[in-house]
Amino acid sequence: MNIVRRLYDWVLSWAATPYGAAALFVLAFFESSFFPIPPDPLLIALILGARAKAFRFAAVCSVASVSGALLGYAIGHYSWWTLSGDFTALAQFFFNTVPGFTVEKFAMVQGLFETWNFWIIFTAGFTPLPYKVFTIAGGAFDISLVPFILASLVGRSARFFLVAWLIWRFGAQITTFIDKYFNLLAVLFTVLLIGGFVVLKMV
After folding, report:
1. Stretch 115-131: mean pLDDT
2. Domain boundaries, the chain
3. DSSP 87
4. Contact criterion met (CB below 8 Å) for 191 and 185
5. For the chain: N or C, fewer Cβ within 10 A?
């Protein structure tokens, strides 16, 4: 069993303890900058155990994730570049250790920020894109902080509250659908949303 699978099982184990909500906060916070397991599995498990608290858990997850995004932003802003403009030892550690981080992806994200700004942060927050890459890149490339926070809040909240609503409304039977199709539908929804605004802007 690889380390990611062990981490996944460890994350889910918190759902059966009295500390599930606290664990959800910590997980969502650190997933925004370096932790490899997204908070969705624990969020789903907690809601299945207490559907009446579905939206409370979603709120905890959203607040923690956006707070963690600020940590990622600070890492990028203060600890990513040397004075000569090279990657620091910390940046090299992320590239070599954290899943989803590569020099190539990081360079690509810079171009996405320059083109899409608010929308790419929203997309990273709502879809399966590696959100942590975008939070750190936001600080490293000195993205304006207020739009960064707003886009993160909208994207992360939309994702977690949608998951919460689906389970609150449909119960355990919806979890298979979420596992198989949620990320695909999130991407399609985002493409349509952004595409609609681009069309309106061109008209």
Report:
1. 84
2. 3-202
3. B
4. no
5. C
